[in-house]
Amino acid sequence: MKKLTLEEIAAAMGVRSVDKLPRIGVSRICTDSRDLRHGDLFFALPGRQFDGHDFVDAALSGGAVAAIVADVGRVPARWREAGRLIVVPDTVDALGRLAGYHRTQSAAVVIGVVGSNGKTTTKELIHAVLRSRKSGKAAARSFNNHIGVPLTLLSTDAADEYVVVEIGTNRPGEVAALAQIARPDLGVVTSLGEEHLEYLGDLAGVAEEELSLLAHIRRRGWAVLNHECRARPQVARREDLSVLSFGFQPDADLRASDVTVVEGRQRFRVNGRFEYELPALGVHNVSNALAAVAVGLRFGMTHADIALALAKAALPPQRLEPSRVGDVMILNDAYNANPASMRAALATLDQLPPRGRRVLVLGDMRELGADTLRYHEELGRAAGRSSAAVIVAVGAFARNVADGAISIAGTGKRIYWHPSIETAGPALERLIEPGDIVLLKGSRAVRMERLIPFIERLATTRVPA
Prior knowledge:
Elements: E1 4-5, H1 6-12, E2 25-26, E3 29-30, E4 41-43, H2 56-61, E5 66-69, H3 77-81, E6 85-87, H4 91-105, E7 109-114, H5 119-131, E8 136-138, H6 148-154, E9 162-166, H7 174-182, E10 186-189, H8 197-200, H9 203-210, E11 222-226, H10 233-236, E12 242-247, E13 254-262, E14 265-270, E15 274-278, H11 283-298, H12 303-311, E16 321-325, E17 328-332, H13 339-351, E18 358-363, H14 372-385, E19 390-394, H15 399-408, E20 414-418, H16 421-431, E21 437-441, H17 452-461
Parallel strand pairs: 3-4, 4-5, 5-6, 7-9, 7-10, 8-9, 10-11, 11-12, 12-13, 17-21, 18-19, 18-21, 19-20
Antiparallel strand pairs: 1-2, 13-14, 14-15, 16-17
Helix pairs in contact: 4-6, 4-7, 5-11, 5-12, 11-12, 13-14, 14-15, 16-17
């Protein structure tokens, strides 16, 4: 963070009068007292399990210069008397206000990434491309909410030429609120699909929410859009933006073609001319890579430079993350799931070269609203048409996955349903065979990765016939 005085920080957060604040500059924010460094400014943020106000004493005793608090009554009186507290109505709101102010003081180009699927992967690919030639930062992990976005913006310093901000949502208005803080110079929309329909309603609601980013891109900025977004009215409203589209369609500005899989890597061409290689499976990840190509070109990089960076990129964990245990291949795609990302996972399985049986282990998809059961049944039918020899559905909603698969699958497929991870795990030990490719996917709340130890135990103890 650019060094700011406590007085500047207080003013940025809307605090009009503060007594006794030490005249000192701050260049780092801390929200976890276990991660505190001497000279940090501590924000007492509320959480699901802990409240930062309970750790203000430890933070100030440990070297924090001051603390931002809302509930001053929970802080020992000695710190109030020492003038080490800045009191605000809401510490989360104050964090956002400070981040918005800091953004105006930073010369770094802000890149905002939104979309129904692929945000974190695209963010990491953009960062991999840009950091090969420039200095900058990107959101840690999936820091994409009302706390993560401000912290990402506040992580920049004077040396940074760019910062990649991931912006998430599950309710109307969240993208706009975070984009208003970030005010991107360049906005990226990875995809539009059926996500959080319990709150966003339908695909039109999803598009309205995700594309609300465009209204907050700085004037005469850039928009990098999945080609499916190009004709949306939200794009037409910003005539001042320079728009670059990407996809597999012939009229996309950046078009991928000739996609092949070679030893767990994908090779493809951009606009029929430029050769690329990506150390990741899934055609949807080629689309994510195209977004990174677009951003790299906007920063003046050549296709050759971008291709070199993408060939060395690392994807975040639990996004089609491959591993081998004995002769069994596991594709851990368990980070999250919605109908579009499930379809992409099935397509990935079908894309793999012939090798052993394909085993689909599919968990519930959450927050799909009134059509939840229909979406699960449609997934089951798609799974039944896929190359999978074995389909294991896990969870209450996933029973409809099994029903959908049974309704259209040929007699050669083996289809099972289990109500929970606890019952599915032991069953997998009886199902998995040497040479199998096992794909795990479900919503984050299900934590399908908990099945991996069962597969590992089986693969390391069974002796092939």
